[in-house]
Amino acid sequence: MGKTIDVDRYRVKPGARLDLRRWPTRVAPYYASPQDYEARLAAGRERLAELQEKLYADDRYAVLLIFQAMDAAGKDSAIKHVMSGVNPQGCQVFSFKHPSAEEFDHDFLWRAWRALPERGRIGIFNRSYYEEVLIVRVQPRILAAQRLPAVGDDLWEERYRSIRDAEAHLHRNGTRIVKFFLHVSKEEQRKRLLARIEDPDKHWKFNAADLEQRKAWPRYMAAYEACLRATSTRAAPWYAVPADDKKNARLIVAQIAIETLQSLDLRYPRLDAARRKEMEAARRALLTGRV
Prior knowledge:
Elements: H1 34-58, E1 62-69, H2 75-83, E2 91-95, H3 101-104, H4 110-113, E3 122-126, H5 135-138, H6 140-145, H7 155-172, E4 175-183, H8 186-198, H9 209-215, H10 217-231, E5 238-242, H11 246-262, H12 273-288
Parallel strand pairs: 1-3, 1-4, 2-3, 4-5
Helix pairs in contact: 1-11, 2-11
């Protein structure tokens, strides 16, 4: 039997010093065997499905799960394997690609705000508005395309502040936000990119642009460090999840999602006197065959 997952181990503490070179990309497995992994993941999916149903019935909160990572870190597979048991009617996934012309004509939060989950639902962002302080910071040409009226030295701090303020607003209004940075090593990424080239079944995953992004690895790590440090808050925490072992990463992500939902004190709506009377009358009618 695998050991208990202490999710606080992976939480980025607000304002804490963060050095991703020292943050683990691999930890001891939380599963004892492949069979144990499957059993633990299945149990996690079942628990998530139960909590999602209660979230929908309770209808007071929404949950937003945000996934960010370097290419080939396992975002897609984590979403697929962890959330596959959740009722599709109560869960929505959005994947944010390069901004469209319409999106460039709005502020950097606009396109994500249109995709926020409704109360009672789980929303998943595969990449997000955080791209605006990550890839945009590393690739200045994208920033130039946004045609901002002024770009000063404090641009990134201003964007961090906008993000913190927006997430605090959402929290006050019932949306609980949890952010996952899947932390993969450069060597593990190299192996996974090679697999995409060498395995015909994975050719569709390969994108030559991934190699260009890889060349900027140090700048991306610096951008992630600054971003996680500036935007991990008590209300909207970042979790830096070791991702060299995909199975382990999925178990950690599942446990964090479960604990987030469990913290909401979800409950099925209580029936008032009039509703109970109505249902009892319906019950009698069905039992007696009058309807």
